[in-house]
Design brief:
With 467 residues, this protein is α/β, with parallel strands linked by helices. It has a domain at 27-282: Rossmann fold, CATH 3.40.50.1820. The protein is built from eight helices and twelve strands. It has helices at 2-23, 74-80, 102-118, 132-143, 181-191, 213-228, 275-282, 447-466, and strands spanning 28-30, 40-45, 55-59, 83-88, 125-130, 150-154, 200-206, 234-235, 243-249, 255-262, 394-397, 414-417.
Length: 467
């Protein structure tokens, strides 16, 4: 028993040390950060920042608060070194009307604080949000194209679809007044005239959204098509299972708008593990650029097969190394090559293909016009849809204890499911340890029986000696 206690104490010490060490790698949230904006909010700083850290604004749903966004993108921020700003509406929903004042302006003030005071990259600012946060995301992209480079709404209305001064989503359940791209594009341009490149936009919506956000999707797509001068939608690849994807490209062939619809899915998308696809689309998993458009050449200028070519008159060993691939063989002449170009200078950055799932609570938009008390902590789910369930952990570890403890050795170990938290064994099992305690039998014979047998044998032996 003392030996077991010694081992248990040692294991506890090791586990505490491991937990402390693993926690050192995670970033931290600063609640109520000093943004100096008219809205309150939190700031997440990863343990290791990228050289020029991007900024992601994570926007909560109606009846949520800044704490609702904690956990959505934290692990990706740790992995790729970007900041997360989580604004707090301070009321039921964000006021997401098409204006460069009020809540949208307050969020931009938060972004400016991180750029000026924390060294955030002004050329890599993004937004992503659920429901009310999705409506705000689309508003920020259309009204502040000079600040944001891209965003993802899960789901959202058009910029201009949210009534001015509304904080309860009175249009939820309604249909858009128009699906004409020019109509919605003009609303955005009237709020802010912009002749530069508009941000990329990603849209997610359930096909059975109880608030008819799927009914707004054609208008949303038409607005960003019009603003960005994009072509017609074409089927896209790589969507998560069950989702139907459509992509819209600019004149250079870059995907600048992506829509995703899941048949039978309700409004609440917080349990759909969308953080990975959002991070990938926005380009937050890359060291530079946004939405598939890099601001530096990947793989180096011409690779190592470069300027004069290998045996060519004045050709190159390949237009661009593109991650270290060999340059093509070409004939002598302008832009051609002699022999095959040498390998490019080093591999370009790998794009992760297996992204961890996001975490975070459930939530969503409340019924239209329903007053809800603002919760200052992590809110209870506001949707009727069930929260995502956590599967029973499995892995390699000690097997569950047998029905009885063994007096001859420890319980068997092996590969199996994690130990259950309760057991049908009685208290004498001692937690699955193979310990012999007072009151247990030893080899099937009790101590009293053995003593009686020994005394009897001694008595008979003494009588034989006397005889």
């Amino acid at each position: 028993m003392l030996r077991f206690r010694h081992y248990a104490a040692s294991a506890l010490t090791v586990n505490v040390a491991l937990l402390h060490a693993s926690g050192a790698w995670a970033g931290s949230w600063e609640n109520g950060a000093a943004f100096g904006a008219s809205l309150q909010g939190d700031l997440y700083t990863p343990d290791t920042l990228a050289e020029s850290p991007a900024i992601l604004v994570a926007l909560h749903y109606c009846t949520g608060n800044s704490g609702s966004a904690h956990g959505w993108f934290d692990s990706y921020a740790d992995q790729h070194g970007f900041y997360i700003i989580a604004p707090d509406a301070g009321k039921q929903c964000f006021e997401s009307s098409a204006s460069r004042s009020g809540d949208p302006a307050a969020i931009v003030d938060m972004v400016k604080y991180v750029i000026d005071e924390k060294g955030g990259n002004a050329d890599r600012v993004f937004a992503a949000g659920f429901s009310s946060g999705g409506c705000m995301t689309n508003t920020l992209l259309a009204i502040y194209p000079d600040v944001f480079k891209g965003g993802s709404a899960m789901p959202g209305f058009t910029a201009g679809g949210w009534p001015t001064g509304d904080t309860t989503c009175t249009r939820c359940g309604s249909s858009p007044p128009s699906s004409d791209g020019q109509y919605w594009g003009d609303i955005a341009r009237d709020a802010f005239a912009w002749d530069g490149k508009y941000p990329c936009a990603q849209q997610w919506v359930g096909g059975s959204d109880e608030y008819n956000f799927q009914g707004w999707l054609p208008a949303v797509a038409a607005q960003f098509q019009n603003l960005g001068g994009l072509g017609d939608g074409m089927p896209g690849e790589g969507a998560p299972s069950g989702w139907e994807r459509t992509e819209y490209k600019d004149a250079d062939g870059n995907v600048r708008l992506q829509t995703n619809v899941k048949a039978g899915q309700a409004h609440d998308l917080t349990g759909q593990n969308l953080a990975g696809p959002v991070v990938s689309f926005l380009g937050l998993d890359q060291p530079s650029g946004a939405c598939g458009i890099a601001d530096t050449v990947v793989g180096g200028e011409g690779g190592m097969g470069g300027a004069s070519g290998m045996g060519g008159a004045s050709g190159t060993g390949g237009t661009i190394g593109m991650g270290g691939a060999a340059g093509p063989t070409g004939s002598t002449g302008a832009g051609g090559t002699g022999a095959t170009g040498a390998t490019g200078a080093g591999p370009g950055p790998a794009i992760p293909t297996n992204m961890p799932p996001s975490t975070g609570g459930t939530g969503g938009i409340s019924a239209p016009g329903t007053p809800t008390t603002v919760n200052t902590g992590n809110p209870a789910p506001s949707d009727s849809s069930p929260a995502p369930t956590t599967p029973t952990p499995t892995g390699t570890g000690p097997a569950a204890p047998g029905p009885t403890a063994s007096a001859t050795g420890p319980a068997p170990t092996g590969t199996g499911t994690a130990m259950p938290t309760s057991s049908t064994d009685d208290s004498s099992d001692d937690g699955g340890c193979g310990c012999v305690t007072a009151g247990h039998s030893a080899g099937g014979a009790s101590f009293a029986g053995l003593l009686a047998a020994a005394l009897g044998a001694a008595f008979l032996n003494r009588r034989r000696q006397r005889g």
